[in-house]
Amino acid sequence: MKEITREGVSYMTIRRLPQYMPLLRAALDAGDHCVSSTKISDFFGLDPVLVRKDLASIGITGQARLGFPVRELIGGIERFLGWDNLSEAFVIGAGNLGRALAGYGGFGQHGLKIVALFDTDPEKVGKVIAGKRVTDMTKFASLVERLRVPIAILTVPPEAAQDAADAAIAAGIKAIWNFTPTKLTLPDAIIVEQVDLAASLAVLSSRLVSATRTPRQYEEQPVNDM
Amino acid sequence: MKEITREGVSYMTIRRLPQYMPLLRAALDAGDHCVSSTKISDFFGLDPVLVRKDLASIGITGQARLGFPVRELIGGIERFLGWDNLSEAFVIGAGNLGRALAGYGGFGQHGLKIVALFDTDPEKVGKVIAGKRVTDMTKFASLVERLRVPIAILTVPPEAAQDAADAAIAAGIKAIWNFTPTKLTLPDAIIVEQVDLAASLAVLSSRLVSATRTPRQYEEQPVNDM
């Protein structure tokens, strides 16, 4: 897929921006008008040059001795990430993961609102999860069109992922947050971000198996050697 | 952090292994004794050479014309990923995300069992989430030692992440599944895998903002042009 970034801002900068927000909000609450890039970089263990570059890339520049204006920074990041304007999302797949994500209350502060879940299983359809109704997948296209929902969160079984993504795009979905391990083949204009929990857990587990079967690693590097 | 892989198997191979399992289990259920690497590669849109390399790397080799033995493959991957032996985990941070992960029923089939949640907030301590009790963080170290729990799942606020990780490691935790955006500084022997949902969502949202503010992209690439 073609890398679409906004106004040439790098993928890594975009990934770091949400991280700055709790610190900026705390500074605002404490009544600070300005914050230095050094304070931010020290807090996160980042290079101050990198922090200044990140902040400059969204159009906010600091002033010598004063630092960066906190309120403008928060507003700038929120606008850049679209947090000033909640994006609505449909979850496709009302299994364990879909239900967990629908029940997670933390996406609101990141500009995402889950509106409903969809499933093909008659036993799941009609149930209500965290105030969101599980709706029959046959109604997906008409609801995307009526409510103009731009995002689909994909939590179907891996073998059903490509078909579900194709159906979502045919219905007018513009972005897919893919929580399945399936690598989707999609048109370039469609925005896709993948979070592969099973893959991440596989790496963790296999390293743990490896570490526990070769205990010498721990003798060389005691776990409490900080 | 030093990359720890098992017997030289690459990070990307390990990440792909869980993906093969549903197909292999379906083949077993259908009574197939063998499966060809081409069948697997076609299904996932992968290079067959890559699939053979992945499977060979866990010590299973195929036979000409017959393919790979399904039962051995499943057993081999399960052993490799430690799925044959449930690893127990404590969740640190009983906020929205911690509760969602504790309530997610899908980790069991990936070899992970969440045993309890921990928090410092007296209002959260004592609550029961999906059969798991939220326990006071002061009891964390003694419970890690008594139950020999190797994994901590970190879902605390970003500014509390490093301290929580340090406490976990001092208590004897060997692996941290880090769901905070904080880049942790830890001893080399500690296994860390990070899942940064906020960062992934930030990339998705900023691309969506970008796409909706430059509608020309969609005229050039109609969303239903499959």
Walkthrough of the structure:
2 copies of one chain form a homodimer. The first copy, chain A, has 226 residues and is an alpha/beta fold. Chain A folds into 3 domains: 6-81, Arc Repressor Mutant, subunit A; 87-195, NAD(P)-binding Rossmann-like Domain (Rossmann fold); 198-226. Chain A contains 9 helices and 9 strands. Chain A has helices spanning 11-29, 37-44, 48-57, 70-81, 96-103, 140-147, 161-170, 197-213, 216-220, and strands spanning 34-35, 68-69, 87-92, 112-119, 128-129, 132-136, 151-154, 175-178, 191-194. In chain A, strands 5-6-4-3-7-8-9 form a 7-stranded mixed sheet. The two termini of chain A are 41 Å apart. At the A-B interface, helix 1, helix 5, helix 7, strand 9 and helix 8 of A face helix 1, helix 5, helix 7, strand 9 and helix 8 of B.
Summary keywords:
homodimer, 226 residues, alpha/beta, Arc Repressor Mutant, subunit A, Rossmann fold, seven-stranded mixed sheet, two-stranded antiparallel sheet, 9 strands, 43% helix, disordered C terminus
* CATH architecture annotation of the largest domain in chain A: 3-Layer(aba) Sandwich
Question: How many DSSP E strands of chain A?
Answer: 9
Number of helices of chain A: 9
Largest interface: A-B, 88 and 89 residues
Number of domains of chain A: 3
Could you say which overall geometry of chain A the principal axes of the C-alpha atoms support?
globular
Poorly predicted runs of chain A: 215-226
Write the element-wise H/E pattern of chain A from the N-terminal end onward: HEHHEHEHEEEHEHEEHH
CATH superfamily of the largest domain in chain A: NAD(P)-binding Rossmann-like Domain
As a whole number of angstroms, the C-alpha radius of gyration of chain A is: 21 Å
Distance between the termini of chain A: 41 Å
- What structural class should be given to the helix and strand makeup of chain A? alpha/beta
Assembly category: homodimer
Helical amount among residues of chain A, as a percent range?
40-55%
